[in-house]
Amino acid sequence: MVLTLVLLAIGALLFLTIAYNIFQQHKQKQEIDRRAIIARQKVIVEEAEDILLNVNRIPYSKTLILLLQTRILDALRILQQATSNLTAISQRIEDVENQIKYVKEHYKGDEGQFRLPDSDRQAVQMLQTTKKLRAIVRLEHNKGKIDPQSFAIEDRRLELMMLKINIANLLQKAMDARIQRQIGTAKQLLTKGINALSLVRDKDAYLIASEEEMRATLREINEQLEKESQKEREEIQEKQDDLDVLFQPKKKW
């Protein structure tokens, strides 16, 4: 009888130990998941805020601004549920809600806000920002946060924005090459840009003007090369005429 009670006690203790370990493992997993959620939502907020900082250089439509701010708001609400720092997050949520309200009532996208990249590094940064934004638009579309028609419009707008950044950088490089008398490089860059733009059917005013500028510059370069070539031919012919006069048979008087 005593042995039976001892065995039951050992069994109960073993069961409690196993149950406790399972409970602890479950709590640890919950904590790991909670931290992963917090880390993920912080990345979402920081990424969206970083993209919004470029609004003065890369023009965003109202749809894109609202999409980014709503993405921030959703992430903050998830953070609110996953963290104990409720006061600070509640204030941020209120701020973002006010921003969304202001954008809905007052914001107007301005294509004229597009500023040319000042360097290769800045062009790369602008391209990276636009690529991130385009990926976010696709992600939010997959979640059903943006309707198919708006998605198609915004995705194409961002695709053209990437083209504009590349063309602006290419055109600047071509002009620099021309100034440095690297005519072959300048012609190659201009031809590349013209060929790329010739395939685009929905060019905006900036791309149309850029294509016209590149074609005009390429014509000027070709005309300049033709003039230089003509002058060189004339100089060669003039030297040849002088030689002919010098070595022509002398007349006998």
Can you give me a brief rundown of this structure?
By secondary structure, this protein is mostly helical. The protein has 7 helices and no strands.
Defining traits:
single chain; 253 residues; mainly alpha; 2 domains; 82% helix; 0% strand
Textual characterization of the structure:
- The model has no long low-confidence stretch (mean pLDDT 84).
- The protein has helices spanning 2-52, 62-82, 86-106, 120-142, 148-179, 183-198, 205-247.
- By secondary structure, it is mainly alpha-helical.
- The chain starts with a helix and ends in a 6-residue tail after the last helix.
- It contains seven helices and no strands.
- It folds into two domains: 1-115, no CATH class; 130-200 and 207-221, no CATH class.
Number of domains: 2
Q: What form results from the Cα inertia axes? A: elongated
Q: Give the total of beta strands.
A: 0
Distance between the termini: 156 Å
Give the helix tally: 7
Share of helical residues: over 70%
The residue-averaged pLDDT reads: 84
Characterize the biggest β-sheet.
Answer: none
The Rg value, from CA coordinates, equals: 34 Å
Structural class call reads: mainly alpha
Uncertain parts: none
**How much strand content do the residues show?**
under 5%
The H/E string reads: HHHHHHH
